[in-house]
Design brief:
With 377 residues, the chain is mainly α. The chain has 16 helices and no strands.
Length: 377
Amino acid sequence: MEGTNSLGKKRNPSFELLRVIAMFMIITLHYNTHTNALLQLGIPATAVNIFANIMEAFVITGLNVYVLISGYFLSKGKVKLSRIITLICQVYFYTLIISLVMQAVGASSGVRYDSMYKIVEYIFPISSEHYWFVTAYVIMYILAPVMNAAVEKLSRKQMRAVIFLLLTWFCFIKSVVPVLFPTDKFGYDYGWFICLYLIAAYIRKYDVVLFYNARNSALVFVISCAVIATMSISLYYINYNWGGVAHFQEVPFNFNFFFTLTGSLGLFSFFRFFKMRENKAADVVRFLGPLTFGVYLLHMHVEIRDRWVEWMESLMGSVPTYSVPLFAWHAVRSILIVFLAGIFVDWIRKMIFDYVGRVLHDTWLFKQVRKLDEELD
């Protein structure tokens, strides 16, 4: 049911608002990447580059926050087989149907579909990392019942120890050592997602009050992002003038960097304290929140991810790299258009899925899935 969670209760509008904000932050990361707006090694810095790096520092927490929200609610709710199947079908809707539609209307990017690898990439989008985020997210989702069982069985002390060891492996060491470890995936893998999931599960199970209040939480977020921005810009100039720490310049923008984690927890904590009023705005964010995953699937589709900035430029002109205000205005409009387009497409997708669900509700296949949901409950 739209606006409700797996337990049939109304979704918390504050967290749905945070989910929406997190997706805006993720789109911003991609905008900066595809416009080449960030500081680059060996290339003189411009005011727009500096601004983009600061903007990047304040939105780099979006992906972690999105995963934290999922872990916070999945760790107590019931992970049903039907939901996993729906999630996978949603991925196929985008990887297959969007590609076919673009081919049919002549909007294809020219990606070749006649190679065995390309066929496999579309038939097995999760295994082939058609979207790295989706691969990591789905694996985390499938492992959720196992992690939930562990959360229930482990003592508080044991759980703290597990989280600390995982953070040491994934976060603490890589944040201070200025070399690249072969095992460091920069947070672009399910190992980091599992770590975030367990942190969120721990916060929920023991009702951990992070940073004491909303004000402190906001300060942690702002200070963490300011540190990330300062480090990224300072390391750029060190590398530009003297060299020697080229790898470490990228570390502040890793999802598993220490201050990215603290900033993510600060933002997440702020919205735990923030209570959104029950009104039409709350209904709007309840509607938007569940559709945000589709926003990611659309704009990061292999046919679209390297082209949507060009489409925005055809609508609004080239990205103005000579003026910070004009660059910011171009970014805001582009990101908003991408978000709204993604929401619209996923709303259509949801209506199709709902219709198919109603038509096939009493079929043998759907009855078997519901039966498995009950048996696995």
